Amino acid sequence: MVIIAVGTVISTVVYIMIYLKQSYNLPKSIVNMQSMLILSLFIQATVHAVLIAAPIIVFVYARFAVLTNLGLTMVVCLTHHGFVSTCAMILFTKPVRDKLFCMKLLIGHNLMESRDCTLSAPIIYKTVMQVSHSISYPTYLAVLWILIRERSKPFQKYKYYLIVHILINMASETYVSFLMLPMTYLPHMAFRNTGILSRFGFSGILQWYFLATMVMLTGGSICEMFYYRFRVSIFDFRDHKMSKFLLSSFWSYRLLTVGHAVFASCTIGRSIELQETARVQLWLSYPSLPPEITCYSVVFAIPQWINLTVMLIYFLMTLLAVSSVICSVIYMKIYLKNGYTLSAATVRMQSMLILSLIVQAVVHAVLIAGPIIVFIYARFSVLTIDNLGLAAVVCVTYHGFFSTCAMIYFTKPVREALFCRCCSKGRRSVKSVMSVQPSVSAQGSIGKDQKL
pTM for the whole thing? Predict the structure, then answer.
């Protein structure tokens, strides 16, 4: 067994070294890495061989030379040959050596002293993120005021969906720009939060979960409005199979939202530990990054089971929302087009509200999915234009504002009421606009809208 092991090891090492030396088609970095690993393994084997074979030789020699004082020393060598071999592995394996000594010495001394986790975001980026509220907040408040004062029958219930959606947009916008205020480090999928929550010691991963919840609520609000428009537009909607599909999709979306919160709460401790290790490894692998990348407020996308589970939840929720919205829109369009029992005024009103809702959903989708695509593209194409990452964060922040602007423009009653009150042009109010003279079938549809 000894002869087989020794012969195999020596012949393997010699053959590999000759092959690597003559392999001109291999990159130099790969040759160096393989040579280093083979050398480390060869030294470990040598240490094992020496510290196991030497005591055996001493015991054999002592048997014939009558030695009496080396036995215990040889037992110690035989016992700790694995430890000495591990030390040799650390010394001759550069990645292990660098990680061990850099973590203990470099990070423990230089990094902790040089990094500033209270470092603010760039002034231009911070100004754009926060000063823009001087435009968005008045717009939100004006639309809320119009909707609250609205008394027309078709808006009696639907306006509350719009009000809730606008409040979610305001909350999401305020959260990202003031409480979170993330910075990017392209091409790495890392964000350092510099907002108010970071000053109070909230971890980066927890702040990310809050943001994901905001996006989920936005998507859920859009889905609820589409389902409401479906119920109002379709006569006897409960008898349609599409109604059951939409209802099951929306309940699945709600359950996944709650499930995400429960799963995140149960795994937050482990996630924080994994994030801590990932941040340090990222900084060690890319020393050009600022030391602030290791701060507690940084969240980093790492391929481990918790993140993969969360990503699966996000994917399922996106699939449910997109499929239910598209199916409901197509079904309502076909129904309204063939709805001979509905008056022309009712069809126009419902089509206008559906179009407004479609545009809002598209704005949300583009301004949320677009930045995600940018970050993924930057990760794989090594895109280092960090200003592009900050611009993507601005898009995510103000997706609700642009969606509200789209709602104003494509919802004629709100648009005319807003410009009537703001510009004092004396245009007719929302009530006069919506007070059409419907036929008997139209009155039934409007009465249904009011009841629902």
Answer: 0.69
